Amino acid sequence: MKKLDKKYFLLVILLFFSLFSYFFNESPNYSIDYTQEKEEGLISEESASEIEENFRIIVHLAGEVNNPGVYQLKEGDRLVDLLKTAGGLTDKADLELINLAVTLADGQKIIIPNIEQRNREENDFKEQNSIDLNNLAVIAGENNGSLININRADLNQLVELSGIGEAKAQAIINYREENGLFQSKEELIKISGIGEKTLDNIRDEISLR
């Protein structure tokens, strides 16, 4: 093939590829270096720049990175390439929550998370789901064996309470069976025959747990 024919043939191929990428918005996941073609005069500087532009993506980078902003990269580049371009991560970046090997996409926004924020959230979760040691101490005190558990005690145990005879003891059991476990000591006054005075007499003798 003559050199002139070769030039035309290459130009036609490049033009076809460029038009295909433009109309179908599809580009291969690799970049092309046109240095040799430009040096041989097979393609102009302007045409090379236009074709190379079709292989570019624009990505927004934010969060714990030294130089956040909008970056232009080659299609197929990965997050690690973007971070190198942006000057790397800060010392507060949470490496466990990012995938350095992820492939970037045009128009994508990537936020590098803060490790201190994750630590705060984990601590808040632990605090919200931890046992209140003060309440635990109270519960332990109530279960020291000297108190009568009104949610578990039988008739013989209940009659040991001050001012509680068999009738009131049975009324406590009946109430418990009909309404469920007592949620507070004050709930006892809902039982017929047990008033504030009786409750005050047995308040320090009973427990709920």
Automatic annotation (TrEMBL):
GO annotation terms (biological process): DNA repair; protein secretion by the type II secretion system
Highest taxon of source: Bacteria
Domain Helix-hairpin-helix DNA-binding motif class: 156-175, 186-205
GO-annotated molecular function: DNA binding
Pfam families: HHH_3, SLBB
GO annotations of cellular component type: type II protein secretion system complex
InterPro entries in UniProt: Competence_ComEA_HhH, Endo/Exo/Phosphatase_dom_1, Hlx-hairpin-Hlx_DNA-bd_motif, RuvA_2-like, Soluble_ligand-bd
Designated name of the protein: Helix-hairpin-helix domain-containing protein
Annotated organism of origin: Halanaerobium polyolivorans
Lineage summary: Bacteria, Bacillati, Bacillota, Clostridia, Halanaerobiales
